[in-house]
Design a protein that fits this description.
The chain is mainly alpha-helical. It has helices spanning 10-35, 39-43, 47-54, 59-70, 72-78, 82-87, 95-104, 124-137, 147-158, 161-175, 185-201, 203-212, 216-219, 221-225, 234-247, 250-262, 264-268, 273-282, 287-290, 292-299, 308-322. The longest helix is centred in the N-terminal third of the chain and has 26 residues, at 10-35.
Length: 323
């Protein structure tokens, strides 16, 4: 099912069914095109593959393509069985295990796959295992809040613990190095980068935020730390991740700038901090973002030019300010 096991209210279901009606035909067309890609095209970093990925990986191929383009499959192949050894024996008073357990029941309680243990659909044990193994392999990170949401949504796609483990490890260590350090320095840096980009591209919004004391750490914590999981509708998150695994972190800024751009009039109409925060909460739930087949193309147009060099330069600036 397109809803990936998430329960919806009647209103949400109506909006969702309308979206699925529009999206199904888009998906069929894309599937046909993907069938024509051969293995060597999939292994390449070609412009054609980049274009295809930006237009969305068909559901039945998503797991394999994520594993391939992220580099996770290559790493799994080099160390078969390593995941199992990490799960070895969980001691009762294991600090990582205790931390993971704390967050398990908070992870998507409205999803049939992450309801309490014991239901046959339950992915709770798989989620625990992947997060525990990850914490064991990466003691400097251990278990970092936010990873539960990211891992849960990965499991719903790859449906395999070992794959999810390597995908998570590749994401944290290769694609987003530094994102999940306990100091949160990287999150602060990304907020600085976003602030500077908004200042340049949406100066009125920048001035508004300054005037009303709205800061990005207040409103974008889950955008960066959860990579939009538990923020945007799930299919939209997967479309963002399609790009994230292939192109890296720039897409996170594309999404943020597009959300803010599409909602700048609503923001500029606010007269106090609480109503501004409300706009930030609503902008990730409206019809705009549910219809990923129209929203995702916008993220490549709305922010206009966004060179990686620029982002790196702003990150370095943030770093210098922190030191």
């Amino acid at each position: 099912h397109m809803d990936y096991g998430f329960e919806l209210t009647d209103d949400e279901r109506r909006a969702f069914d309308e979206f699925v009606g529009d999206y199904a035909s888009v998906l069929d067309r894309r599937s046909g095109r993907w069938q024509s890609l051969n293995q060597s095209e999939l292994q390449s970093r070609s412009g054609k593959l980049k274009r295809f990925i930006r237009k969305g990986i068909p559901r039945e191929l998503r797991s394999d393509v994520w594993m391939l383009v992220s580099g996770a499959q290559g790493r799994l192949n080099e160390r078969p069985g390593y995941y199992k050894t990490l799960l070895g024996n969980v001691a009762e008073d294991d600090a990582v295990a205790n931390q993971v357990r704390l967050d398990l029941h908070r992870t998507f309680p409205e999803n049939v796959h992450f309801k309490e243990f014991g239901n046959s659909e339950s992915q709770m044990q798989a989620l625990f295992n992947v997060l525990y193994a990850f914490g064991k392999k990466n003691p400097a990170v251990g278990y970092c809040q936010g990873l539960n949401y990211v891992t849960a949504l990965m499991l719903l796609v790859v449906k395999d613990e070992e794959k999810a483990f390597w995908l998570l490890d590749t994401l944290v260590n290769r694609i987003l190095p530094g994102y999940y350090q306990p100091s949160m320095a990287s999150f602060q840096a990304e907020c600085y980068v976003l602030g500077r980009l908004v200042q340049e591209k949406l100066p009125q919004v920048h001035k508004f935020m300054k005037d009303y004391g709205v800061t990005f750490p207040m409103v974008t914590l889950k955008w960066f730390i959860c990579l939009y999981a538990d923020v945007l509708p799930v299919e939209t998150v997967y479309r963002i991740w399609d790009v994230l695994f292939f192109e890296g972190s720039k897409v996170l800024f594309r999404v943020a700038l597009t959300l803010i751009h599409l909602n700048q009039n609503a923001l500029l109409g606010c007269r106090d901090l609480p109503s501004a925060i409300k706009v930030f909460q609503q902008m990730v739930q409206d019809r705009n973002v549910l219809h990923c087949h129209t929203f995702i193309p916008q993220i490549f147009k709305v922010p206009q030019s966004l060179p990686m060099k620029k982002i790196e330069q702003l990150r370095a600036e943030a770093q210098a300010n922190q030191d």
